Amino acid sequence: MVVGQNLKLLRNRLRKSQEEVSKELGLTRSSYSGYENNVAQPNLESLILFSDYFKVSIDDLVRKDFEKYKPSEWERIDKGLTADVKGSKLRVLTAMVDQNNEDLIEFVPVKASAGYTSGYADPDYLKVLPTFHLPFLSRDRKYRSFPIKGDSMPPVVEGSFVVGEFVQNWMSIRNGTPCIVVTKDEGIVFKVVHNLLNSEQSFQFCSTNTFYQPYLVHANDILEIWKFVNYISPELPDVRLDDNDLSKSLKTLQKEIHELKIMLKS
pLDDT (tens digit, 9 = 90+) per residue, 64-122? Predict the structure, then answer.
C-alpha cells in the first residue's frame, strides 16, 4: 500500500508539519507519524478522516501513487473534486441485455426508485426491473427510464417517466440541458442543468416551474447523469393558443359555418 507516502505528500503540499496535521485530526503525533512511515496501517475510521481532511477519495488514497500525478490531477484535488467529472476512468455502469446481446432500457418504477442510489450498479437490483426497447434510439448509447415526482418540471407531470441517455463526460454537458441526475442526498432528480464545474465544481439545478428556486449541487455529491431524450406521460399537455391563433381559428370556424349554411339552403 502507498498510503504512507501519499499522506506525506499531501501534508507537504499543504506546507504543514506532522504536529499541525495530527492536532487538527485529533490524533497523537506518534500515531500519525506511524501512518506516514508505514509503521502502522490506518483502519477504516482513520481512512475516512484522512479522506475528508485532504479532500481525496479513500480509493485514490490507498490505490494511487500520488507521486505520479499530473498537474491536471492535482488541479482537480486542489478544487476539492473527488468525482471523475471528465469520465477519464470508465464509470461503473451495469446494464441489462436481451437474447441478442442488445442493450435494454431499464424501467425504474416508483417503488424501486428509493433504492436506486444504492442499487444503480448492482446487477441483482437491476435484473428485477422491467425492461423495454425503443427502436428509434441509437444502439451505440445507453438509456434508462426514471419516474418523475412533483410539479417542478412542467410540462412533464408527476407520474411521467423520463428516458435519459447516460453521460460519461460531465464536462460535455451544455448549459440549459434537461437531465436526470442521481444524487447521494436527493436521489433521482429531473432538472435543467447549468454546468459550473470550472468555476464552482458544481451544477446548478433549475426547474421549469419558476416557483422553485435554482440551487447548486457539488460534483462530489452526484452519482450519475442521464441527458433527457424523451418522456412518457399519462396526461396530454395543455395546448393554449395566443390571441392571433385564436382569432384565426374563429375566422376559419365562421367561414366553415357560412359555407355549411349555403350548402343546406341549396
Answer: 888 888 887 787 777 777 777 877 654 556 677 777 777 889 999 988 888 898 888 78
Answer positive or negative: Cα dihedral of 37, 43, 48, 49: negative
CA distance 43 to 36: 13
Residue 266 C-alpha from the chain's centroid: 68
Cβ(137)–Cβ(143) below 8 Å: yes
pLDDT for residue 87: 74
Tell me the residue type at 81. Answer: L
**DSSP three-state, residue 144:** strand
Q: Give the torsion sign (CA, 57, 62, 67, 70).
A: negative
C-alpha to C-alpha distance for 73 and 24, rounded to whole angstroms: 25
Q: Which domains does the chain have, with CATH numbers?
A: 3-78 (1.10.260.40), 105-232 (2.10.109.10)
Query: Grid coordinates representing 88?
Result: 477519464
> What is the C-alpha separation between 164 and 230, in angstroms, rounded?
7
In b/e form, how buried is each residue of 164-174, taking b as 16+ CB within 10 angstroms?
bbbbbebeebe
